[in-house]
Design a protein that fits this description.
Layout (H helix, E strand, L loop, with lengths): L1 H4 L9 H31 L10 H19 L3 H19 L6 H22 L10 H11 L31 H17 L2 H16 L2 H6 L11 E5 L5 E2 L5 E6 L3 E11 L5 E3 L3 E2 L6 E5 L6 E11 L4 E10 L13 E4 L5 H26 L6 H29 L10 H5 L1 H21 L4 H14 L11 H27 L4 H33 L3 H5 L2 H27 L6 H28 L22
Parallel strand pairs: 2-9
Antiparallel strand pairs: 1-3, 3-7, 4-5, 4-8, 6-7, 8-9, 9-10
Helix pairs in contact: 2-3, 2-5, 3-4, 4-5, 4-6, 5-6, 7-8, 10-11, 10-14, 10-15, 10-19, 11-13, 13-14, 14-15, 15-16, 15-19, 18-19
């Protein structure tokens, strides 16, 4: 086993290691000197003003170690780089809690640096050595960092796996974006804060995977998740100073992104802009990769733009340096920037009204199907009119969304986001279902087929928007049921407001619509609560966000609708078929439809307002391709 773990000197070019070793020594020496300086300043300040001790020395040490990690990863020495990451984690602990940076603790980090340098020098001399030999020093720095699990296998140079053991006889947890997103969020929380709850959550995911409790794994929602997509980390990271020019750029996001609609530019010190060839990382659906051109020393700015899984564009920029900041990054801007376009009010309104019209058409078609023994041409015309309105509004929304999602600085056509991205294709699919419903009811005169097409179009709404990005395994079906329940309710109201029937026939129609609406309201409220729990990062953060404000407005509108519906059912419907009761019910239904329109506008706006996220500082987290 030992021989299998040794670096294969015959198959590895050690020239790059010889090139970076001197810079590595300098980085380790600078880090050690900074730690010693901080310990000395702390000792001198004991008993006086500890708060006045400059923590900049700790940050310098951390930055030097971070640069050294990148250098070793670039020359393909993953195991020694892992040792350095342990040292960096220990110093990060000092940054968070300076009182832990005692002389013995700083000495452990320094001894780890000595051991690592000696090991690399032996590798250059051709000695047959395993990185596992660094385990004593690795264990020391990991203990300083507060790691819960420390194992020699962390330093093995080759891929390995645990021995197979018997587990609970069950199907394993499905490997899907929802599970991966949850694990990724836990890892980020652990790396940044050492949150013990994140560690327990990861352990729970492991146990549930073995026991095949997939439903429980999805229900335990990671509250750090959110929309729209956010840049979690990059390699190189914002502010990095690299001794060796990187050959590849990696951008890792909080949710899956669309590579086809992504644009990444590299701005060089001389002002030249390189448009990079962006592709999705085959190992991670939430990451983009792009090869980098040859780079001279200086500052480089990365300008990026992408489309998240929920169909919303987001862009930003950051700066990194090669071989020292000898030139200013072009153009002048903050070290790192992330921006989300402003809310497109027209697109939001068109979406709310388009989905509402299609839902109402589906509900009317359902009542036509249930009452097919006594068809009413007036209601058939209502279904056709609502379907046509849905086609017009959804087509207008698709164009408005494309204008919102397309790159304003690129040369892509307006229709490109609709044909080349998954959110755009979903818009076209929903529009296609609406067109088929128009054909079926208007030309083929087939209510059943029109109903199926309208319901498919309504249900496809569940696949778009925030539901596609946040816990889709539960959010998508919950949203689809939510909109289908809305269809039943809205269709019943539309029929009562439009039908020309009177007497007992009107009473039968009202009773049927009222009974269906009662069940629809129950489903609507239940699925609304589920969706809110899935996306909510916490009540306080939700209430103090724009998303929370719009959500509260929608909930108030729903409460008014429920109150009006209860009044209609228990105060007006029992007095049918009297003409005065019929007139009063139709007036109340028109008011209910007006309130429902406002609720639909709020729902359309919610689709474009970002869900609040638990904030994080990505400058402390830099995951390279070897971390995945």
């Amino acid at each position: 086993m030992q021989a299998a773990q040794e670096i294969d000197l015959a198959n590895n070019d050690l020239g790059p290691l010889a090139w970076v070793l001197d810079e590595l020594r300098k980085s380790l020496d600078t880090a050690s000197a900074a730690l010693r300086r901080f310990v000395r300043d702390t000792a001198m300040a004991r008993g006086s003003d500890m708060a006045g001790v400059d923590g900049g020395h700790l940050r310098i040490a951390r930055q030097q170690l971070h640069q050294a990690v990148g250098a070793l990863e670039m020359v393909g020495l993953a195991a020694p780089a892992h040792m350095l990451r342990g040292m960096e984690a220990a110093v990060q602990k000092f940054v968070e809690r300076p009182d832990l940076c005692t002389e013995p603790a700083a000495a452990k980090v320094e001894r780890a640096g000595f051991a690592l340098t000696e090991y690399l020098e032996g590798v250059l001399l051709g000695k047959s050595a395993s990185a596992v030999a660094l385990f004593p020093q690795y264990r020391d720095v990991q203990e300083v960092a507060g790691a819960e699990r420390i194992h020699p296998a962390d330093l093995w140079d080759r891929r390995w796996r645990w021995n197979d053991v018997d587990v609970v006889a069950a199907e394993p947890l499905a490997y899907e974006p929802a599970v991966r997103s949850r694990v990724d969020q836990c890892v980020l929380r652990l790396v940044k804060t050492g949150d013990p709850d994140a560690a327990r959550e990861m352990a729970a995911v492991r146990r549930w995977a073995a026991a095949a409790l997939a439903a429980a794994a999805v229900l335990a929602v990671p509250r750090a998740a959110g929309a729209h997509a956010a840049l979690v980390s990059s390699t190189p990271a914002a502010g990095d100073t690299l001794g060796v020019a990187p050959g590849q750029l990696v951008l890792r996001f909080s949710e899956p992104v669309d590579a086809a609609s992504s644009r990444v530019e590299l701005l060089a010190p001389g002002g030249h802009a390189y448009v990079l060839n962006v592709a999705r990382d085959p190992a991670d659906v939430a990451a983009l990769v792009a090869p980098l051109p040859a780079m001279l020393p200086g500052g480089y700015r990365v300008e990026w733009r992408t489309l998240s899984a929920d169909g919303h564009p987001v862009d930003g920029s950051f700066v990194f340096f090669v071989a020292g900041a000898v030139a200013a990054p072009p153009p002048p801007a903050p070290l790192e920037r992330v921006a989300v376009p402003s809310t497109p009010w027209l697109a939001a309104a068109l979406r709310g009204m388009g989905v509402g019209a299609l839902a109402a058409a589906a509900g009317v078609l359902l009542l036509l199907f249930l009452g097919r023994a006594t068809p009413e041409p007036r209601v058939e015309h209502l279904a056709l009119g609502l379907s046509l309105a849905a086609v017009v509004l959804l087509a207008a929304h698709a164009l408005a969304w494309a204008a919102y999602a397309r790159d304003p600085f690129g040369n892509e056509a307006l229709l490109h986001p609709l044909t080349a991205t998954q959110p755009g294709q979903l818009e076209l699919i929903r529009l296609g279902f609406a067109l088929m419903a128009v054909w079926a009811i208007g030309l083929a005169r087939r209510v059943e087929f029109a109903l199926v097409m309208a319901v498919m179009g309504v249900a496809s709404t569940g696949v778009a928007g925030h539901a596609a990005a946040i816990e889709p395994a539960w959010n998508i079906p919950a949203k689809a049921l939510h909109v289908c329940a809305l269809a039943v309710w809205a269709g019943g109201l539309a029929v009562l407001a439009w039908t020309g029937r009177r007497g007992d026939e009107f009473r039968a129609t009202a009773l049927r619509a009222s009974s269906l609406s009662l069940g629809a309201v129950a489903v609507l409220l239940a699925t609304g609560v589920v969706q809110t729990l899935l996306v909510s990062p916490g009540l306080a953060r939700l209430l103090h966000s724009t998303y929370g404000t719009v959500l509260i407005a929608k909930v108030i509108g729903m409460a008014v609708l429920v109150a009006l519906g209860a009044r209609n059912r228990y105060r007006l419907v029992p007095h049918l078929p009297a003409d005065d009761a019929r007139a009063a019910l139709r007036r109340a239904v028109r008011v209910e439809l007006a309130v429902m329109l406002l609720v639909l506008l709020a729902a359309g706006l919610l689709a474009y307002v970002p869900v609040p996220r638990v904030p994080y500082d990505p400058s402390h987290v830099s995951l390279s391709s070897t971390d995945r």
